[in-house]
Design a protein that fits this description.
- The protein is of the alpha/beta class.
- The chain has a domain of 132 residues: Response regulator (Rossmann fold).
- 58% of the residues lie in helices and 12% in strands.
- A five-stranded parallel β-sheet has the order 2-1-3-4-5, with helices on both faces.
- The radius of gyration is 34 Å and the shape is rod-shaped.
Amino acid sequence: MTAQQERFRLLFVDDVPANIRILVEMLRLEYDVIFTDNGPEALKLAAENPQPDLILLDIMMPRMDGYEVCRKLKENEATRVIPVMFITALVDEDDEAMGLSIGAVDYIRKPFNMAIVKSRIKTHLDLKHHRDELLKKTEELTALNAQLAKEIQERKKTEAMVQEHLGYLQQLIKDNAFPSSPRNRSSDENKSG
């Protein structure tokens, strides 16, 4: 993104205030960071405009765990495309497999290395930006194709009308339905008279 474009917006969801403080402090200079400490509020913030470009989500939280938040985000048409990265203390590979299988794009274990977190955030934001651009271009091409198909249909109708009129005119000529030209009439009259 250029300096004139809006900054990427991150949503960080963790029930531990110290974790929120660390990540917000490390990321706020590069990104617009919003945060919450619970799943239901995360779902609400994810659906608001402007939507976050990436969600960093803890798994172990009261009320609604990160897996359930991710499932609900992926079930909702409005939030389905927002990439979700799990940042969690769960270190078991089965937990990672579960997170990725329900739609997360990445899984980072705590304690984490901030340089790695920043690098992965940048990678996923770049991917999202390119996907968004691709979707935009696809929509533009789809609209242009629809317009072109309409123009082709109109052209075919016009060609059919021209062919119909041309056929009619050719039949008239063939049937001598046109009166002779004045010059031909005078020579025809001289021959008969």
